[in-house]
Specification:
about 475 residues, Na+/H+ antiporter like fold, 20 helices, about 0% strand
Length: about 475
């Protein structure tokens, strides 16, 4: 019930709203973070449960690995929204969000294999490998097929927001149901991820321009409701179990929860640092400041809670294992939302990752001049209209005074940047302050991706993949 009702909405909404042009450049980085990094994090989290927190006896090695696969699934929705509000690079936000998308699928694959072992299924080594490969590669293929079908359906609908929205919802749930309940035996989450990525790249153009806004808003609402309900269900089930007299969760487990929260940050930092030499040389690269932010921004949320609720609903998993996994998953999710999500903005500002590029600053200054100029011109035109003869124009100009905005961006007027002019000069008497210039190729690439969300051409993307010292 939890799997089929909530996960398709959560995953598709996030994938459908991703930025494909940045995602494709960072795809290799995202694969590393969602693949090898997640597997290492799963093992280290299992070691933490066994040797540091001291869960032994009924909480077996397999149970430790099961918890490791659940807690390794990140859900940094709050952090991504915060990065966008602070004006941080869209590349960094897309990297964090893309990692969350794919590692949800990878975590689900590992989770399903381990859960079947705990429930008593007999697997040999090769059977596990075959099952893992079928889940990992079959899901994306099914998702791409679903994307082609959905694109064809949308191309046959013209300017009908209700049908277009219903089509995306119907195909998303159909693909997930086919993946999880048919004889295919592939990963439903990975199928939905690749369905959403296909739609954001190719299928989105099949949606009518008049309907696109409503489709995105409805999916945003569906995702919000699904995430809210999952948190409510987790709180109700956790509270109900904690109040039962036969519960095996004691005060020591709540103290261990605090330790889990702290240690998971060190694990994530260590794992990212382990792969950093490779991550900094591919895609758009990764600075050490970004390593620190990614380590701190690994919030846990709805997907991990969904997997924990699936464990709690299984009759074949011992009650003690259910309670410990649910406690630590819900507790870590709550702590990351209360602490990490509310303090990430401070860390972003401290690290200087919210500073805007010179091109964006000059664009803001130029636009403030243009808006002020257009305001005066439009007021003069309106004065000539006999229907507005009773308007108090001085009072109107005071109400829409541009002085504050102009003064805010005035400091960006004479930035020392070199390079060709881009965009018009807004009929300014002097172009000197509008000449965007770039100290190096990385400055140019940063500016273009910040303003447009994509590189300007293949050469820029190629340069952006090179180490900074080679540019």
């Amino acid at each position: 019930m939890i799997l089929f009702l909530f996960l398709p909405a959560l995953i598709f909404e996030s994938a459908f709203n991703s930025d494909w042009h940045i995602f494709k450049v960072e795809f290799a980085q995202i694969l590393i973070m969602a693949g090898p990094m997640l597997l290492v994090s799963t093992v280290l989290s299992a070691l933490m449960m066994k040797y540091i927190l001291g869960y032994v006896g009924e909480f077996t090695w397999t149970a430790c690995l099961l918890y490791g696969s659940i807690i390794s699934a990140t859900d940094p929705v709050a952090v991504v929204c915060l990065l966008k509000e602070l004006g941080a690079s869209r590349r960094l936000a897309t990297l964090i969000e893309g990692e969350s998308l794919l590692n949800d699928g990878t975590a689900m694959v590992v989770f399903l294999v381990i859960l079947e072992i705990i429930e008593g299924a007999e697997f040999d080594f090769w059977h596990i490998i075959v099952k893992f490969c079928r889940l990992s590669f079959g899901g994306p293929l099914l998702g791409l097929a679903g994307g082609i079908i959905l694109s064809f359906i949308l191309s046959r609908i013209h300017n009908n927001g209700v049908l277009e929205t219903n089509s995306t919802i119907f195909v998303s749930y159909l693909i997930f149901f086919t993946a999880e309940s048919s004889g295919l035996g592939v990963s439903g989450i990975l199928a939905i991820v690749f369905l959403g990525l296909y739609m954001t790249n190719t299928g989105k153009t099949r949606i009518s321009a008049e309907s696109e806004h409503s489709v995105h808003h409805i999916w945003g609402y569906i995702g919000f409701v699904a995430e809210t309900v999952i948190f409510i269900l987790s709180g109700i089930i956790m509270g109900q179990r904690a109040m039962q007299e036969d519960t095996q969760i004691g005060p020591i487990d709540y103290l261990k929860l605090i330790g889990t929260y702290v240690i998971l940050h060190f694990i994530r930092f260590f794992v990212i640092l382990m792969f950093w030499p490779l991550l900094r040389r591919i895609g758009y690269g990764m600075s050490f400041k970004q390593v620190i932010l990614c380590s701190y921004a690994g919030l846990r949320g709805a997907v991990g809670l969904s997997l924990a609720l699936m464990v709690a609903a299984s009759d074949k998993v011992p009650r003690y294992i259910q309670d410990v996994i649910l406690l630590h998953t819900a507790g870590v999710a709550l702590l990351t939302l209360i602490i990490n999500a509310t303090t990430t903005g401070i860390l972003v500002r401290y690290l200087g990752l919210s500073r805007q590029s010179n091109l964006k600053k000059q664009a803001l200054h130029s636009m403030s001049l243009k808006v002020e100029q257009d305001l005066d011109l439009n007021i003069e035109k309106l004065k000539e209209n006999k229907h507005f003869h009773a308007v108090d124009w001085e009072h109107l100009k005071d109400d829409v005074n541009m002085a504050d905005i102009k003064n805010k961006y005035k400091k960006y007027k004479n930035l020392n940047v070199e390079g060709p002019m881009t965009g018009d000069d807004f009929n300014s008497p002097s172009r000197a302050h509008l000449e965007p210039t770039y100290n190096n190729q990385n400055d140019y690439t940063d500016s273009v991706s910040d303003v447009t969300g994509r590189g300007s051409n293949a050469d820029i993307e190629k340069q952006a993949r090179l180490p900074r010292e080679n540019v």
